[in-house]
Amino acid sequence: MVLKKIEVVAAIIIHNDEILCVQRPENKLDYISKKFEFPGGKIEKDETKIEVLK
Prior knowledge:
This protein has one domain (8-53). Helices cover 9% and strands 30% of the residues. It is built from one helix and six strands. The termini are far apart.
């Protein structure tokens, strides 16, 4: 089995002792539906890590 390599970036943003996280929308895939995650995502071709976080 060959695994595909996907580069991702995430940010942990702390402000006044609070941590920012986002809730995913409802999805047909139960394992990701409405789960919480840090901001970020997959890095697409010709995209910088900073652009992904924005």
